[in-house]
Amino acid sequence: MKDEPLQSYRKKRDFSLTSEPRGELPGGDRSADDKSTGERIFVVQKHAARNLHYDFRLEVDGVLKSWAVPKGPSMDPKQKHLAIAVEDHPLDYASFEGRIPAGQYGAGTVIVWDTGTYHNLTELDGQIVPVSRALENGHISIWLEGRKLKGGFALTRTGRGWIMVKMRDEEAKPSMNILKAEPASVLSGKTLEEMEKTGD
Ligand code: MN
To answer: Which of 99, 131, 180, 191 has its CA 20 to 30 A from that of 198?
Structure first.
């Protein structure tokens, strides 16, 4: 029997203690709507947990497919960054920022470092491969239209985890450290350090 969507997400969290969303908004309608435009959301959250990392999430079939990226995304096509697949998150997690209390899963501070829409570029033999299938196959190519991240990105599964890389296109910025250049939340304007002090 297939696990209920978000079962793993909910099991890890006590919603009487954390202000993270339970994820009870229906995702199905939204993903159906988006099939007409092919546009779905992505989000990158900067998360100061035990180890600082960036969480990269893509809307796929009503949930956010998620990876923890210790070094964060890069606009430099030469940078290949490890992305560790983690549990699916609910769609409304895309606007979550604030503090996850001590003792809770992922305890620490979160900001929404970037968000926007994406579309699927993954092709096999000249045909577009649906994102869910592409993820099963272990390779996706997507075009991001974020406030900070733009252009083509690829995620490829390897023996050690997934590798995230900026594709070579007109949006690539080989000499830019976008994490340092644009550190603040695109929702609140706060840096992670400011969010740590003030909470949500
Ligand atoms: Mn995280």
So the answer is: 180
Whole-model pTM: value is: 0.91
Instruction: Look at residue 118 and tell me whether its pLDDT is greater than 90.
Output: yes
CA of 49 to the centre of ligand 1 (A): 7
Residue 1 Cα to ligand 1 middle (Å) = 28
Classify residue 6 by burial, with Cβ atoms within 10 Å: 0-12, 13-18, 19+.
Answer: buried
Q: What is the pLDDT of residue 5?
A: 85
- Please tell me the distance from the alpha carbon of residue 72 to that of residue 188, in angstroms, as a whole number: 20
Encoding tokens for residue 121? 């570029």
Phi, psi of 67 (to 5 degrees): -135, 145
CA distance 2 to 24: 19
Give the helix ranges, DSSP H, for the chain: 7-11, 28-37, 131-137, 178-181, 192-198
**Three-state SS at 1:** coil
pLDDT per position as a tens digit, 73-102: 999 999 999 999 999 999 999 999 999 999
Cβ of 79: how many Cβ atoms within 10 Å?
Answer: 15
Tell me, in angstroms, the distance from the centre of ligand 1 to residue 53's CA.
Answer: 6
Q: Which residues are CB-contacts of 148 (< 8 A; sequence separation ≥ 6)?
A: 44, 113, 114, 178, 182, 186
How far does residue 180's CA lie from ligand 1's centre (Å)? 19
Cα(12) to centroid of ligand 1, in Å? 13
